[in-house]
Sequence to fold (183 residues):
Amino acid sequence: MPEYAFIGRSNVGKSSLINMLCNNNKLAHTSSTPGKTKIMNHFLINDNWYLVDLPGYGYAKTSKVVRGEFEQIITDYITKRSNLVCLFVLVDYRLPLQQIDAEFMEWLGKKNVPFCIVFTKADKLSKSELKKNLENYLLKVSYIFEDEPNYIITSAEKKTGKEELLEFIEAHFDLFKRDRDEK
Fold:
């Protein structure tokens, strides 16, 4: 079955977004402590596809050995999983493009991994701040990629972006099925 994975720096709001998408506030564990997701969690959605919750990257209160294990698990999954349709890279909308996010997205581009940027916590900014942050972010991303990556603006608290994310998944699900049928 097709898989759609969610990843982001620790404490970006990944669990809250997953819970919002699935209408279940207890599906993915939310915490104010970064690095709570320590394993890959697969959630079967409508008996059709998997939503995959990956451990975060960046700061987490874990040892270097454990962080290295996380990195290897994530790298293997992202580069070797044939049914990974799209990797959703979550970034905090309130922050400018972080070096760790830029390097990660650049690596995805080099590995030809399909991804979509998901801006989280949009409810924390005014409309003018949202517009300004998006323009600045996309400008910086344009230095990495010729073509602008797909992106979706979300807020788990306000349920903003939920329909757009589900429509994106559905559109790519149809492409995945078509590709599989042709093989």
About this structure: The helical segments are 14-21, 64-80, 99-110, 127-142, 162-182. The chain has a mean pLDDT of 88. Residues 162-182 form the longest helix (21 residues).
